[in-house]
Each structure stands twice: as structure tokens, then as C-alpha cells.
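Consider this record:
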Amino acid sequence: MTDAAIPTTLATRPKSGNFWLLLWRQFRAHPGGVAGLIVFSFIVIAVYVGPFIHTIDPNKIDIKAKNQGPSFAHPFGTDNLGHDMLAQVMAGGQISLAVGMTAMSLALLVGTLVGVLSGYSKKLDGPLMRITDLFLALPLLPLLLVIIMLFRDTLRAAFGPETGIFILIVFVIGITSWMHTARIVRGDVLAVKSQEYILAAKSSGMREYRIILKHILPNVMSSIMVSATLGIASAIITESALSFLGLGFPSDFPTWGRLLFDGANFLQINPSRVLWPGLAISLTVLSVNYIGDAIRDALDPRALKH
């Protein structure tokens, strides 16, 4: 098989560790991506390591310290019950990031599976794309609200108030966020499967699943990685919107969206209650979007030639 029969993404790709080194160099050439990676890494470290430094219990009530502004004891201030806002923002970040990562993984799995099967198999293409179109035509926010209202109490009773809502929100976000990934992956698969080396692999008797795993998936991985980063941002925003509407986690189980919901009524008394969780959501989503843009540019076959 000659290099002319191999798509650019493979023919120009260095071997083994050299590819990842070159990929990192291309990523570093994107200032926004580097800044996004720094900010996102800082947020993740602060959220998961911060509670070991700032050891105040996020659910500890101190009525004497309610509605205070930023101070040395409470850097982000306190709420109307005396909860430490810094501790609550860190605890809420753990839940929001976990929801974003898990929901993104589910959406990515479903979207990649549908996209690969649809692009590779002509028999499945029509039905799978019509299902995708059906999901795209659904009004997602009303659908999310209806599903949560129908199954919230059932899952709470089965798994507990926190775990039940976590499973429900992750499932709802993941099952309504896979369509764009499926369309993107399908388009890439259609382009890849027409290459000569795919036809050669079929002629040699290679099994279909091996063709998909060995030749198809590596060539659509760039689109999958970009969809993964953007999916995290979308899932965090959706969870925050649901929590802001009061349909997310219970009030004693803070997320960034829940903190915004609880602090909205005290905006004039204590604006910092919505400032910090809102800033955390904005910085996280913005940094993840910049990381996704940088990964897309770094995986551009034209960039990998050099």
C-alpha cells in the first residue's frame, strides 16, 4: 500500500511518541488554548485540592456570620445561613464538573456509535439519521423538565436524593446531547471509508469491526476529541440551567447552578453570592471552549505535516 492511498491524517502523522510531541507543540502555538488549559487546570485543582486547604464544612451553619462580605475567615463571604461561600463553590464545582464529565462521556459514546454505524453502513444510515433528526427537532428544555419531573421522585427513592438526581441529570443531559457528535462523526466516516486503503482492507478479508477499530476510528478521533471538550461545557451549562430553575440537586447539595438559584433572591443584599458561582461557570465554559479550538487546530492534518 502506498502513501498516496493513505489519508493525510495518517500519511503525515509521525510515529508513536513523536506524534504526541508534535501535537503538543501545535497546541502550544495556540495562545487561547494554552490560557484555557491553565485556567481549567487551576479550576480543577482548586475544586478538588482546595477543600484540603480551606477545611470549612460547606454545610456548616453559622447564623452569627450570615450575609457577610469577603473576609480573611470567609474569602468569598457567607450566605443567609452563614455557609462559607468559598467552601460551597468548591463543593459545587466538584458536582458540576463530575456531571459535565460523565454526561459528556455518555453523549460521546452514543454519538460516536451512531455516527460510525451510520457512516459505515448504508442500511443503518437512513434509520439512524432519521432518529438523529427526531432528537434534533425535539424542544430540549421542555423535554428535560418533563423527564426530570416524571422520574425524579422514583430515582430519589431508589438511590437516595443526591445519587438519584445525579444519575437522572447525567442521563438526561447525555441522552439529549449526542446528535451533533453523531452528525460530525458520520461525515468524517463517509470521507474516510471511500479511501483506497479501506477498500484494500475489505478486499483482504479483514473483518468489519477491525476495519472500524483500526482504520475508521483513528481518523475521526480529532472530531471526537473536539466534541468531547465542547460537550463538557454544554453539560455544565445545562446542569446549571436546570439547577437554576430549581429542578436539579437539593438545596443542601450545592452545585454552581444551585448556588446561583439560591443567591438570586439575595442579589441586592449580597451580590457576591451570585458573582462567584457565575464566574466559576463562565471561566470553566470559556476555558474548555478555547481548549477545544486549540485541539481542533492542533489535529489539523496540514499542521501535523510540519
